[in-house]
Specification:
By secondary structure, the chain is α+β, with helices and mostly antiparallel strands. The chain has twelve helices and 17 strands. α1 crosses α2. Helices cover 35% and strands 28% of the residues.
């Protein structure tokens, strides 16, 4: 169990991922080769008799938390050849990765699991946290449409798109560098030919954007719509002064696909499109792991100090524990460890006035792509 060595083993990883996930090796090859920050040390493999039989990828990224950032190890492309399954190889690779992540100073790890793989990740120390809702959405009146013009993105739009994104980024939103934007755009064109960036504008000013894949009318794509096709909405973001722009963008994509009637939308909790609509819990595919509580506390400390001062939390002190943190102040103390600490950091704590001041309720605004 170790990082990949050389191009030949990386080629074996592309073959493995392509065969297991059915995307084709080119999908995974373009993803890594299109990332200018890619480090071979993030590709971990199990090698048996000189052959790569299991592999997993780490996608490092920074996430905003208050006015600081947290280093997160995004875990993806976890796969084992059918001939070697049932031997615990994927779990061993994940365990080896975890030790490396701790050495590198990652406090948190995140992955998005298929239902059948959840028990594996739970054994590897990952827990599911509630994230997102499902909204029953249907085309609205023509009022919203008439207020906005929706069109394909143009080069001059990127500055405005990035400004809207930065203004709406959630407490655990991805910190997007220049390289992220350019690499993501290039990779989308290579791996997702139907990928679409749309913008909504009003009086010549950007009011929101859409990033996703829209199958053409009459296309054969599996998905929850009246005709069995699916709009893959990765991001629908509106300017704070233009909440109706999100409605106009989804409506445009819906009509472009040619599907009548309504469609279920998977949305982050608190998304503007959920307002006034029938909402049900979304699928909790996001799984988090606390890699290093001390590293997490070091990263959070300046934010906790500021929040304690602003809320008047008296004499706040903290001490590190191997799996958590002990917070104490005049008149009380709390021990947050394991899942409790993860929930406080990622979701916030609304059930405790003191902890709520230090860990306010989070309202994630964007899609899973934003986080990982």
């Amino acid at each position: 169990m170790r990082p990949v060595r050389g191009r030949e083993e990386l080629e074996q990883c592309f073959d493995l991922w392509g065969s297991v996930f059915g995307e084709g090796r080119g999908f995974f090859q373009s993803r890594l080769e299109g990332d200018r920050t890619y480090d071979p040390a993030t590709t971990w493999v199990a090698v048996v008799a000189g052959e790569v039989v299991s592999a997993a990828q780490i996608f490092p990224f920074d996430a905003r938390w208050g006015f600081t950032t947290l280093a997160v190890a995004g875990i993806g492309s976890v796969a084992t050849r059918p001939s070697h399954r049932g031997q615990g190889l994927a779990l061993a690779v994940l365990s080896a990765q975890r030790a490396w992540m701790a050495e590198q100073g990652f406090p948190l790890a995140l992955l998005f699991a298929r239902e059948r793989a959840i028990p594996l990740y739970e054994r590897a120390g990952y827990v599911r946290l509630p994230f997102g809702t499902t909204v029953a959405w249907a085309p609205d009146a023509l009022v919203t449409r008439s207020r906005y013009t929706v069109r394909r993105v143009q080069p001059a739009d990127w500055t405005g798109i990035r400004s809207i994104y930065d203004a709406q980024t959630a407490p655990l939103g991805h910190v997007r560098s220049d390289a992220f934007w350019t690499d993501a755009i290039r990779w989308t064109k290579q791996a997702e030919p139907g990928g679409a960036w749309l913008v909504a504008e009003q009086a010549g000013r950007l009011a929101g954007y859409f990033f996703g894949r829209i199958p053409e009318a009459g296309g054969a794509e599996s998905g929850p719509t009246a005709e069995g096709r699916l709009i893959r909405r990765w991001e629908v973001v509106s300017h704070r002064d233009h909440p109706g722009a999100a409605e106009a963008l989804v409506d445009h994509a819906h009509r472009q696909m040619g599907a009548p009637g309504g469609v279920p939308l998977s949305l982050p909790a608190g998304h503007v499109l959920a307002a006034g609509r029938s909402v049900s819990p979304g699928r909790h595919r996001g799984m988090w792991s606390l890699v290093s509580a001390p590293a997490l506390l070091r990263a959070m400390r300046p934010v906790l100090v500021r929040r304690a001062e602003d809320a008047g939390v008296p004499a706040l002190t903290w001490s590190e524990r191997p799996d958590g943190v002990r917070l104490a102040w005049a008149g009380g103390e709390r021990l947050l460890a394991g899942r409790d600490l993860l929930e406080a950091v990622i979701l916030g704590r609304a059930d405790d006035p003191w902890l709520g001041a230090l860990f306010p309720r989070a309202t994630p605004f964007l899609w899973s792509l934003d986080q990982f």
